[in-house]
Amino acid sequence: MENQEEKIMVSVWCRTYNHVSYIRDALEGFVSQQTDFIYKVIVYDDASTDGTSDIVKEYAERYPQLIHAIIAKENTYHRPDSREVELKMWKKYLTGKYMALCEGDDFWIDREKLQKQVDYMEAHSECSLYIHNALWMNCYDGKLQAGNPFQGHDEKDITAEELIMQYNGYPATASFLFRSEAQIREPKLFAISPVGDYAAILYALSLGKVHYSSRIMSVYRVFASGSYAVRMQQSSGLRLHFYLRLRMFLAAYDEYTDYRYHQWLAKRIACCELAVMYGGEQNILIAEYVEQSVKQGNIFPEGSTACIAELEKRRKQELPVELKAFVNRHKHIMIMGIGEFGVYAARMMISHQAAFDGFVVSAKKEGENSFMEKPVYNLSEIPYEKEDTGIVVGICPFSGKWSWDSVLHSLHTEGIVHYHCPFS
């Protein structure tokens, strides 16, 4: 067994928790791989309570040379040292030259996935991470569509701007293949990030090139039951926790990389700050939301108190300079979007006693006539002269849910030239 461990080319890390409806797909994807090298799968079950553990044990018994199961006795996800615990396990169990990731609710659909990624990495020592395209499966309706996180050629090295900004959404974690030695040495600052996949991408960026293939080789389940994305939708406390930790991580990463990527990191940091400042009701202090989030079991990193105090102070000050100038130039102000960022934009305006006349959307749904006690119009139905009207775009320009190009197309199609996005 020791000799076999020395020959392992890829160690696959699968973390799972209460994925009883999904885990078989993941395990089947692992065992179906066709390679000319040895790979091993480490499945870490984080104390599931729904029967996931039994399925993991079943596969470990059926494929003892391939799958090694670790069944935790108590859940570690909400522990303050969760990331450190995971890294210790990586150092102990991930002995391969490369490491691949796949959460228990995602799965691989290409039997040549690992072989293709390893072949490329072996031929390109400068490459620290290989990412491929994936299908996104909506767990609400079962619909599938290609993620296409990076536009362009079938094969390409991804720029720092594309990796940081993620204009077309984020790549699927199940598509990642790293060089193990470098990834396991990940500095502690990366534990600040609320999500490990984004931190892992940026760490790989700091070490070398990140390569992308448009070939679809895995499936990412969107809005899976109990997933982080679903819980984010349901809890303002968790959303604040996410954006505050992401803001702190990005600032630390900016310093860690000697401000090499500052022009893009600054944009994402600003967006996170606005989400923290305006993600809750204006009459409730940010610190109160933090207290609520802590009661829900969320851990905030060291330095959070000072960051919160600074953002609370800024929330009480004037509008951002560019937005204030834009508002002052127009007789009428409309906010485009009635989603998360539309709410942020509205709360920002309300907080600073800046008047606006309502909301606009590219296609109004039936019954969607008012929002936050303001009227909602189609872009084509704005009841004011276009020259007198300024559109504050309440849509994140680098969000996967919305294509910034389509936003601009909608504005230009209606002949609207006066617009400003406070989140860009």
Task: Explain how this protein is built.
- By secondary structure, this protein is of the alpha/beta class.
- It is built from 16 helices and 16 strands.
- The strands form two sheets. Strands 1, 2, 3, 4, 5, 6, 7, 8, 9 and 10 form a ten-stranded mixed beta sheet that branches. A six-stranded mixed beta sheet has the order 13-14-12-11-15-16, with helices on one face.
- Helix 11 packs across helix 15.
- The longest helix has 21 residues.
- The protein is globular.
What attributes characterize this protein structure?
424 residues, alpha/beta, 20% strand, globular
As a whole number of angstroms, the C-alpha radius of gyration is 23 Å
Which structural category fits the helices and strands?
alpha/beta
Distance between the termini: 54 Å
Counted by DSSP, the helix tally is 16
Mean pLDDT: 89
Overall, the morphology is: globular
Largest sheet: 10 strands, mixed
Strand-residue proportion: 15-25%
